[in-house]
Amino acid sequence: MYIQLDFILQRWVEMVDENPALKRLYIRCGYAPMIELLHFLEANGFTNYIASGGGRDFMRPVTAEIYGIPPDRVIGSSVSLEFRASDKKGGDVLTKPQLNVLDDGPVKPPRIWSRIGRRPIFCAGNSNGDIQMLQYTEGSTHPSLCMLVNHDDDAREFDYTAGAEDALKMAQERGWIAVSMQQDWSTVFAAEEQ
């Protein structure tokens, strides 16, 4: 089964569903402190990217609105794509029913290098799947900073430290900054717009 890619992107942009657990629109589930940090970095000469294990084409339509990150700076997992010319002028890019790449763990550093051509000097992650990306960042010849967000706030978000145990241990051993959502963030989500 092939699906026209621009159709998927259009449907996602139109999605206004609410996250049932958080009682917020999905588009309003970005973490306020991380959004503030991204804006601060951008204002101070950094070029920000999102490198996620999540689906690249799923995230691209909303990253500019949520995070201020344009679609061309999203690195993520992807399905295979194919161009199909049509009888009319032009053609379409279609998704194929097979995984192209799962952008997680040891795959992240090569994907970052292939997309941006340099090693990051700042990196934030939140799971064991980010360990290699954090290691890659700390290996910079320039001063670098690695940060790990600990999802330990079950009152305002979810408590899901499972899947981050190794990363949290490494943060302590390697001097990465571990940020506790519960203790370090006065707010998790931005206020809902009226």
Strand content: 25-35%
Structural class: alpha/beta
Strand ordering within the main sheet: 1-6-5-4
Please report the number of helical segments. 7
Give the C-level CATH assignment of one domain.
Answer: Alpha Beta
Q: Residue share in helices?
A: 25-40%
The beta-strand count equals: 9
CATH architecture of one domain: 3-Layer(aba) Sandwich
Biggest sheet character = 4 strands, mixed
Q: Evaluate the radius of gyration.
A: 18 Å
* CATH-assigned fold name of one domain: Rossmann fold
Which spans of ≥5 residues are poorly predicted at pLDDT below 50?
Answer: none
Shape: globular
Amino-to-carboxy terminus distance: 41 Å
What's the SSE pattern?
EHEEHEHEEHEHEHEH
Question: Kindly state the mean pLDDT as a whole number?
Answer: 89
List keywords for this structure.
four-stranded mixed β-sheet; single chain; about 190 residues; alpha/beta
Could you explain the architecture of this structure?
Helix 5 links the parallel strand 7 and strand 8 (145-150). The protein has 7 helices and 9 strands. The model has no long low-confidence stretch (mean pLDDT 89). The strands form 3 sheets. A 4-stranded mixed sheet has the order 1-6-5-4. Helices cover 34% and strands 25% of the residues. The protein is of the alpha/beta class. The protein has a domain at 30-77 and 100-184: Rossmann fold (3-Layer(aba) Sandwich), CATH 3.40.50.
In short:
The protein has 194 residues and is an alpha/beta fold.
List the helices and strands and how they pair.
Elements: E1 3-4, H1 5-14, E2 18-19, E3 24-25, H2 32-43, E4 50-55, H3 56-67, E5 74-85, E6 91-101, H4 108-116, E7 122-125, H5 131-138, E8 145-150, H6 165-174, E9 177-180, H7 181-184
Parallel strand pairs: 4-5, 7-8, 8-9
Antiparallel strand pairs: 1-6, 2-3, 5-6
